[in-house]
Amino acid sequence: MTPATQLWVYLSSSPLLWLTVTLAAYAVADRLSAAAGRHPLANPVLISVAALVALLAATGTPYNVYFDGAQFVHFLLGPATVALAVPLYENRRIVLKAVVPVLGALLAGGLTAVVSAVGIAAALGAPPAVLASLAPKSVTAGIAMGIAREIGGDPSLTATLVIATGIIGAMTVAPLMNALGLKDWRARGFAVGLASHGIGTARAFQVNPIAGTFAGVAMGLNGLLTAFIVPVVMSLFRT
Amino acid sequence: MIPALTLLLACQLAGEATVRLAGWPVPGPVLGMALLVAILLGRDRLRPGAAPVSDTPLGAVTRVMLANLSLLFVPAGVGILRNAPALASNGLGLATALVVSTLLTLLVTALVFRALSGRLDGSGEPNP
């Protein structure tokens, strides 16, 4: 074996390479997003994922080899969800004052997210297993994958649909809310956190801390609600 | 910093353990988040003069995590590589469902929130 081949064999069997590349891709994507003035279309998740997919395809690296390295980043999704407790605690008075709109918007939005997605995909001919993978698309990856597994979906397809939903919501929330003339940071944040989980919440924190807090609240509450309503909605679609 | 990280992990661990033992359909990290809010409220009661949470290591750790929340979704996003066949064979239906449903959800959630909040502009802040 040549030294270059030996190096590649070492790197491709160690988590070091792909962990480093994941962080580097995100660092560059975040710089690009900042340079674009945090324009919603310059979404750092979209840029990083596109770059990494191209790189994995070009080097013929299978996803499981990539994930051996990237899992250390993926793992932090859990502690980061717990970390949302701090902005929630700090803004507890503002959140408690809005308890009626929070609960009303949660019910209306959570139902809309599941019923509209499953209804549209069913009308366009998607098979039941794909519908089951799609139903929890608006909640954060770990929760959505658990729901999909329970109702006969494919968790890995769910993860992809969840990330796509997050990116779509993060990109469209600002133009949509501006078009509506909706300036309440609580409503804007709550909507993007409910529709687009952590990626929407990350976007909301970039724009305004109150929006970020309400997004975090929406993401947590909708994770709960969706776990309860998806099995019910899916049983209605099957009959 | 290490005690702060330990606290976050311990809350998640307690959350995961509780939902499994009790068989609740609640995600473990979400219960962990609720537990941490309860701990912070308890801290207020027991030590009324303590420094604000944002000035503690826990405040610093959570700020760094939440400022870089997007990064944590990148590995799952790259998983699109594994699903290319399923996505391609249902491409139109899934793309339409994702875009329309996400826009509709944003719209319904924000409008219901506004209708129930009774105030047209709660923050009073200008819109960029």
Automatic annotation (TrEMBL), chain A:
GO terms for cellular component: membrane. Keywords: Membrane, Transmembrane, Transmembrane helix. It is a multi-pass membrane protein. It holds the Pfam family LrgB. It comes from the Bacteria. Its main location: membrane. It is found in: Membrane. The chain crosses the membrane at residues 6-29, 41-60, 102-124, 160-180, 214-237. This is LrgB family protein.
From TrEMBL, chain B:
Keywords: Cell membrane, Membrane, Transmembrane, Transmembrane helix. It is a multi-pass membrane protein. InterPro entries: LrgA/CidA. It holds the Pfam family LrgA. The keyword RNA-binding does not apply. The chain crosses the membrane at residues 26-43, 64-81, 93-113. GO terms for cellular component: plasma membrane. It is found in: Cell membrane. The keyword Transmembrane applies. It comes from the Bacteria. This is CidA/LrgA family protein. It comes from Alsobacter soli. The lineage of its organism: Bacteria, Pseudomonadati, Pseudomonadota, Alphaproteobacteria, Hyphomicrobiales.
